[in-house]
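Weekly puzzle thread! Below is a chain. First person to post its structure in token form gets bragging rights.
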Amino acid sequence: MRDSPGVAVPRALAFDVFGTVVDWRAGVARESGQFLRAIGRAEVDAAVFADDWRARYQPAMAAVRDGARDFVVLDVLHREMLVDVLRAYDVDPGSLDGALLDDWARAWHRLDPWPDAVEGLARLRAHVPVVTLSNGNVALMLAIARRGGLVWDAILGAEVTQRYKPLPEAYTATAAILGVAPHELCLVAAHHSDLAAARDAGLLTAYVDRPMERGGAPAPDRHLRQSWEWQVTSLIDLAEQLHG
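Winning reply:
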């Protein structure tokens, strides 16, 4: 494995998943389009609906991070967020079958990887452990991995640490679980805010550019861009930069 000048070689790689490894927007829009048609709301733009659902992501976790409610897994929050966004579209969730809502909320289980993800992870995993460091719960990460052929050495993240990113313990506890120091663990992510929090917690950082994560719209955290240890266009690019 090759070093960046003056940068220690990571002993393990921890990955953000939504947006970094899988295309959440296309998947949630695809799934939501099917459900919107099923409830007679075919006129709703499914991609905009997906964006509105995702916009509730950070506020939903904030209550847990701030201690206003006990820890619950992201699957629970996703269903609550779905109920809230449906109301914003003048759909009464109470009028819908509960099983339909449960299945719709699991749209996040049925996301597809970016085209480079499977090969890139395999090439990286040949040299160091690769794990998830996602706010997604274990069942959610497992479903995505099995659907997309993603192979992880471990599924870690919020459910394991009981901390949602960007709390520093989400990063440092993951390093401790892996038996490495924070500076020996590299977070791989497509989000500057996630990387900034990881760096503040002592981790190395690798930025993966995913310009289509939001359908080509500018990233909301672009003002937090820094000079990350590695900046790549794909996971294959990261493997080549690290391993040659």
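Puzzle host: Confirmed. Bonus trivia for everyone else. The longest helix spans residues 24-38.
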